[in-house]
Design brief:
By secondary structure, the protein is α/β, with parallel strands linked by helices. The protein has 6 helices and 6 strands. The two termini are about 10 Å apart.
Length: about 160
């Protein structure tokens, strides 16, 4: 199974029906599949923290939510994750294109790439780092199960080498 297809299939198979996204070249194929799926409500956002706010409202309306984003926006989202999601026990699956990892060709991405796991750990957000499409499929299933059960954000970090 191809990387983007595995992510899309895992979202579908886990009944995630409301997705907010901020563009990233690595997520482009997944976002295209989501955009053409009539069973998934897709809301593109201009900034990650805006996307988290939209997804929180959708969760409160009964939707199963995910955000697809690049890790550079994680730093912008720390406050909304800590003061909204963790405080009010809102589950969300974060599919994060983890730029700045091995194979990155843009040097400016590296500092945030190194900080990303540390930020998730500081927020006590469990995360998976799959290396194959099959692992990604299984990790998304596992992460969503934890997010729902614990009413807590979870993350999937898709490193440069994943693509």
């Amino acid at each position: 199974m191809e990387s983007s297809q595995a992510i899309y299939k895992a979202l579908k198979d886990n009944n995630i029906n409301f997705i907010v996204s901020v563009p990233c070249i690595n997520l482009a194929k997944v976002l295209e599949m989501i955009e053409h799926d009539e069973e998934i409500k897709h809301i593109p956002a201009t900034r990650e923290e805006e996307g988290f706010g939209i997804a929180a409202g959708a969760y409160m309306a009964g939707e199963n939510t995910a955000i697809l984003m690049q890790n550079s926006g994680l730093g912008n989202s720390i406050n909304v994750i800590a003061s909204l999601y963790k405080l009010y026990r809102i589950p969300i699956l974060m599919i994060i294109s983890h730029r700045g990892t091995h194979g990155e060709f843009i040097t400016a991405q590296i500092p945030m790439g190194e900080a990303t796991p540390l930020i998730l750990e500081a927020l006590n957000i469990p995360y998976h780092v799959p290396s194959t499409p099959e692992e990604a499929y299984n990790d998304i299933k596992s992460a969503w199960k934890v997010a729902k059960a614990k009413k807590h954000p979870t993350a999937i970090l898709l490193e440069v080498s994943f693509w």
